[in-house]
Specification:
241 residues, 6 strands, two-stranded antiparallel sheet
Amino acid sequence: MPVRETRLASLVAAALLAILPTAAHAQAFQCYVPNTAPVIPKPVPDGPTRQSAATHYTLALSWSPEYCRTRKAKAADRFQCGGKNGRFGLVLHGLWPEGKGGEWPQWCPTTRQVTPQIARQNLCMTPSAALLAHEWAKHGACMTKRPEAYFKAARILWNSLTLPDLDRLSRQKGLNAGAIRQAMADAFPAFTPAMVGVRLNKGGWLEEIRLCYGRNFRPTRCTRAQYGPADGTPAKIWRGL
């Protein structure tokens, strides 16, 4: 069942107060939201409906230079990858409820949709109106009743973070998945490396950092599925050049 909308943001905020001695800030980047309303396509389900209970959560952070590497010419990715609306580093892919045995809640029934106003409010965090709509429909609707509440909780977590300088890390010799985890833990000490998942593509390039939270939204050790490749796995980080 979804977390009640009146509780979700307060639950996240309370968890952060317990682990953060002072307020932190997300990675700085340039972002210019256009005055025109974004086009928001209707999400198409990519799997079955599952209304199971969430046992833990993932905050998935995508490395935008790698995502945009082959998408600069695509109209659907123009805001994030075209260069006219800013330059992005790590961006929020989504806040995901997880479940036991890989049976995470998803595509819970809802009649509510992401509006242009909601999209504009969150485009500098998740620079794709289509992705915002997808994340609400697939994940958020299983957590709360309204997209506003889901994205408020995601913003609280996102704005709490301090993030590593991945451009600098990309120049490190012998870079591996463990070094990426350690860099995230060094930047944001509320996490240990065991609480940081990494996703590499088939070529070994970094696609995402995945932060692992317990049911109470406090950092916790990642499951095997969340953790990703072993620490010694060679890794590369595309700088967008």
